């Protein structure tokens, strides 16, 4: 079952190795304004590759606004490195080895393998579906979107405009109300 994270509340821990070396530990060295966490399905997903190529194209724009970016999957190091190479990652950090337990803590949906994808790469037995999160430097959720499948993801150009608005207007995270309705 999917559990929703709450805006303005702490997000789960995230500590994954990076294909570039070292580790990404959420909160250890946060971006000035946000950390943008992009959970992707894995190397087997051609839609993920296209999506991450668009993010790579905009990485410098996000960085100029104080947004640190990391793309994360449950792939192993070899597959994580292959995706980083496919995307020609320069501005993106690629984390790998996300446990499915951690994926579930982030509210991500889990899918089972359907064999080889349209690009001829075998899906893992189990893997997480996409999610995009903006996390404030204090470790609380600012924005989150999760999907049950790879289609119709948030556009990074729209997210960049949202970051501009949030910073310029000091706009608070929304969706925080948990009382009776």
Describe the structure.
- The protein is an alpha/beta fold.
- The chain has a single domain (15-158), classed as 3-Layer(aba) Sandwich (Glutaredoxin).
- It has four helices and nine strands.
- It has helices at residues 46-64, 77-87, 100-105, 156-169; strands spanning 15-17, 23-25, 34-39, 67-72, 93-95, 110-112, 126-128, 131-135, 141-146.
- The strands form three sheets. A five-stranded mixed β-sheet has the order 5-4-3-8-9. The chain has a two-stranded antiparallel sheet with strand order 1-2.
- α1 (46-64) links the parallel β3 and β4 (67-72).
- α1 runs parallel beside α4 (156-169).
- The longest helix is centred in the first third of the chain and has 19 residues, at 46-64.
- The protein is globular.
- The two termini are 23 Å apart.
- The relative contact order is 0.23.
- The model has no long low-confidence stretch (mean pLDDT 96).
Short description:
By secondary structure, the chain is α/β, with parallel strands linked by helices. It is built from four helices and nine strands. It has one domain: Glutaredoxin (3-Layer(aba) Sandwich).
Describe the protein's topology:
Blueprint lengths: L14 E3 L5 E3 L8 E6 L6 H19 L2 E6 L4 H11 L5 E3 L4 H6 L4 E3 L13 E3 L2 E5 L5 E6 L9 H14 L12
Parallel strand pairs: 3-4, 4-5
Antiparallel strand pairs: 1-2, 3-8, 6-7, 8-9
Task: Give the mean pLDDT.
Answer: 96
Structural class: alpha/beta
Strand content: 15-25%
Using DSSP, what is the number of strands?
9
SSE order, as H and E? Answer: EEEHEHEHEEEEH
What's the CATH H-level homologous superfamily? Glutaredoxin
């Amino acid at each position: 079952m999917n559990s929703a994270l709450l805006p303005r509340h702490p997000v789960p821990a995230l500590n994954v190795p990076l294909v570039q070396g070292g580790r990404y530990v959420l909160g250890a060295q946060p971006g000035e304004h946000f950390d943008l966490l992009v959970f992707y399905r894995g190397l087997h997903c051609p839609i993920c590759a296209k999506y991450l190529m668009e993010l790579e194209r905009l990485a410098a724009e996000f960085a100029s606004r104080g947004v640190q970016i990391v793309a994360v999957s449950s792939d192993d190091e070899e597959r994580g490195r292959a995706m980083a190479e496919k995307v020609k990652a320069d501005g993106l950090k690629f984390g790998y080895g996300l446990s499915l337990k951690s994926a579930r803590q982030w509210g991500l949906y889990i899918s089972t393998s359907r064999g080889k994808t349209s690009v001829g790469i075998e899906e893992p037995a189990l893997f997480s579906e996409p999610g995009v999160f903006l996390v404030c430097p204090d470790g609380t959720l600012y924005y989150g979107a999760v999907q049950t499948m790879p289609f119709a993801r948030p556009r990074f150009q729209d997210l960049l405009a949202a970051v501009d608005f949030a910073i310029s207007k000091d706009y608070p995270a929304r969706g925080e109300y948990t009382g009776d309705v």
